[in-house]
Amino acid sequence: MTGAGASTGLVGFARALRHGGVACGPDRAQAFVAAVDHLDVAERDQVYWAGRLTLCAEPDDLPRYDAAFAAWFGGMPPQPPGKRVRQTSHLAALGEGAAKHDGRAPTLKVAASDVEVLRRKDIAELSAAEKRHLHELLAALDPVPPTRRALRRTPSRRGVIDPRRTLKDMLATGESTRPRRRSRTTRPRKVVLLIDVSGSMKPYADALLRFAHVVSRRMPVEVCTLGTRLTRVTRQLRHRDPDQAMAAAARAVPDFEGGTRLGETIKVFLDRWGRRGAARRAVVVICSDGWERGDPALLADQVEQLKRLAHKVVWVNPHAGHDGYLPVQSGIAAALPHLDRLLAGHSLDTLHALLEEVRLA
């Protein structure tokens, strides 16, 4: 029987597979977990065939399944009958931090602990193998959009009396009727992600853009990059495949690893899209380390204007999670008085905290 940690790892694999283009919904994920529950989870081949039979619906799903299985569990997919080599199951070894073993299958408990270490580790310090695993964990995120009360009322069983519909019923029947009612429902609140892609943000820019790709597939969001100029990449991040989305964004952004002019680029955002509706009553998230080559006074003025338009302004600084951090950089010091929250953004756990902050906005 698999434990709670193993079940979490299996469900995470099913989510990553779904984000990779295989249509495996919650019912198939549940069938996968139930099937593995009757097998030896340390037997890699058994896990492979259980997932292949429960998660794949079409022949076209098989190559994607094999690629996802190899990335998630490590190693190549099992060979067809007659050519199989006995292999043991493990969850994506994380390089130097992976547990050593004596040829027997490492337990899922060890793999789960590796994932916990990865969740807390600074993204800038990850190895190539850990970055690949981080991409899989980012793809498995399931963000919930913030909500707001709708401006218009709709028919409802509870709420205030709707005099127009009530009178219409009375005229139609010629007698008094039960009052009709209406109430305000909720709608998703817009989210804006402004991501610094300058040279000082190089260790974090790719992970933040992949995070934006996941968010953009779950809620109404506008995504722009900040550098020496502003570039809107909302359309590029609509690609279903994360690698294709990253490639499209890279082609669209001409100033990767360049300088930073936060005040000027936020002003361009406000002039082109912010005041026209993109920032109104939205949750605006600025992802930057706060190094500003332009005028800090201009940045302070633009963030103040952004605050007046938006529902909430959150600044995510990867360095804010480090011990002894002080917001002394010119950009963050200028913007700080106009922010609702200053959060860290250096690890997967801090990105989870950001999602919760956005959800509760």
What is the radius of gyration computed over CA atoms, rounded to a whole number of angstroms? 25 Å
Low-confidence spans: pLDDT under 50, at least 5 residues? 82-108
Give the number of helices.
13
Distance between the termini: 40 Å
Strand order of the largest sheet: 6-5-4-7-8-9
Q: Sheet bearing the most strands, described?
A: 6 strands, mixed
Beta fraction: 5-15%
Please describe what this structure looks like:
The chain has about 350 residues and is α/β, with parallel strands linked by helices. The longest helix has 17 residues, at about 260-280. Mean pLDDT is about 85; it is low at about 80-110. The chain is flat. The chain has helices at about 5-20, 25-35, 45-55, 60-75, 110-120, 130-140, 165-175, 200-215, 240-250, 260-280, 295-310, 330-335, 350-360, and strands spanning about 145-155, 160, 180-190, 190-195, 220-225, 230, 285, 310-315, 340-345. It has 13 helices and nine strands. It has a six-stranded mixed beta sheet with strand order 6-5-4-7-8-9, sandwiched between helices. The protein has a three-stranded antiparallel beta sheet with strand order 1-3-2.
